[in-house]
Amino acid sequence: MRFDKEQLNIESRPRVCRNLVLQSRTQKQVLTEGERAMLGLCLLLAMGSVGWQDGWVTVRPEDTGEALVNPGMGWVLHYYDNIPENYGSRLEPSDTVDDFPGLSVVYLRIPWSYIEPEEGRFNWSVLDTPAQRWIARGKQIALRISCSESWTRWATPEWVYRVGAKGYDFEPGVGVKEGGPYWEPDYDDPVFLQKLENFLAALAKRYDGNPEVAFIDVGSLGVWGEGHTFASTRRKISPETVKRHIDLHVQYFKRTLLAANDDFSFHGEETIDYAREKGLTLRDDSILVQGGENAYFQAGMAQAFWRDRPVILECQHYGPSKERGYWQDGSKYLQAVEEYHASYASIHWWPREFLQENRELIDKINRRLGYRLRLVEASWQKRAKVGSRWELRWQWSNAGVAPCYRGGYPAITWKDEKGGIVAVLVDEGLNVKNLPVTPPDKIEVVETWASFALPFQLKPGVYSVYVSVGTATGTPEIALPLPRNDGQRRYLLGQVEVVP
Fold it and tell me: What is the DSSP string of 429-473?
């Protein structure tokens, strides 16, 4: 049972009690559950059996500053980055880059031809082999399967061309060129679309709704799967074509988050509106491709997405950005995280080189990327009586740039001296997805009060008090920036005494 803070204010208690008693005695009116509980609390207070005078414990935990690996947010390691050798090829099979703080997703971005080299015969091990290394570490994967590349002729499998799909030879920097070294399909060609649909159906059968997958890009359009043709044929793509490819993905991926590239907008702003209507999120692949004021362009576009779905940012390949003088101290990347309200940020380079040269920046981004749930203050009755209720007041904030979309409920767990759980008390009145998202210098705190009925089998004794955030049944799911983790995402706050 929960009460508004003012209702439980000691100074207002006599007025609240008097009104409830008068209502129940003179108006003969049926009280609500909350009013009955309040009336009971008032009577207990009058008898002195609730520990208002017994004292309270108050703690104000400090944010540890550590990087948090949580659902729906984090750093994305590019294991395959179109070219299979980039950027996981230097890693030993046993190396999952655990030293990179906040790494939560491994990105497998590779041409269709690597997955379906022959029609109907799939080489899933290309995806599953690296995926299992990180899944075993509690991480997720993300996918983009491309149909056009500027380094290999057959991103779309050659057999698709041989069965009649139309397309164009091209040379990067030139455009369509007969006899050019690379080939791009006509994205409206019916043969191409049918074979693509068959592939997407097979891909979705394996990965749609799979909890191991964080998101999947709509990568079937444009060079590198980015939705544009600037580095390929330079042919125009119509808005209807973009929508058709979105529809194909939505048809088969009904549960896994799909992402639309911001470059779809080159073919009409309505394509981004359509993507949003269809439930897709937004990703921007162009952060720091240029520098200064041109470091990014689509923060305004992200405003239509971030409030109810995670935005994904990908920076330019770190090496070339640095060589051209665009990267500088990387602060524009942090600025983009703030303005886009990003939940994911890419490691678009050899991961340890990127980490070594940008550790301070990465730490700053980790303190803002996605959501960061903070317990600002907690106060509870230091003594509780068997058969009575136990009162708690606490303050929470979100120090990140995005909501906790999945939501969750704060909970208190009491443990005995052997670590056994003796009480689980969930504050279902506070869903953390509703914590406000604010600039870093204007963090808003939400304060709530809760009253819990204690387990009937609870024995007198002194118990450790832990806090967690997770399901409505008290299962911890979200890491908090607090010390004294019990290994199950519960964090020690103090003690409570149960008396007979």
Answer: T--GGGSPP--TTS---EEEEEEEEPPTTPPSEEEEEEEEEE-TT
Cα–Cα distance measured from residue 342 to residue 68, given in angstroms and rounded to the nearest whole number: 15
Going by C-beta distance under 8 Å and a sequence separation of 6 or more, which residues neighbour residue 426?
A: 409, 410, 411, 472, 473, 474
Name the residue among 213, 162, 201 with its Cα closest to residue 185.
162
Q: Give 199's contacts (C-beta < 8 A, 6+ positions apart).
A: 112, 115, 116, 145
Q: Angle CA(381)–CA(387)–CA(388) in degrees, nearest 5? A: 35
Alpha carbon separation from 126 to 109, 200, 205 (Å, rounded)? 11, 16, 16
How far CA 157 is from CA of 147, 153, 176, 215, in Å, comes to 8, 9, 19, 24
Q: Provide the CA 120 distance to its chain's centre, in angstroms.
A: 34
Dump pLDDT digits (tens) for 90-99: 999 999 999 9
Q: What pLDDT, on a 0 to 100 scale, did the predictor assign at position 386?
A: 85
Query: Which of 465, 341, 474 lies closest to 398 in space, CA to CA?
Result: 341
Sign of the alpha-carbon dihedral angle for 474, 479, 481, 484: positive
Please calculate the CA angle 225-231-237 and round it to the nearest 5 degrees.
60
- 118 in helix, strand or coil? strand
- Which pTM value belongs to this model? 0.88
25: helix, strand or coil: helix
Look up residue 312 and give its two tokens. Answer: 């994904």
Residue among 144, 173, 162 nearest 78 (CA): 144
The full length of the chain comes to: 500
* φ, ψ of residue 383 in degrees (nearest 5): -125, 140
pLDDT, tens digit, for every residue of 10-23? 333 333 333 333 33
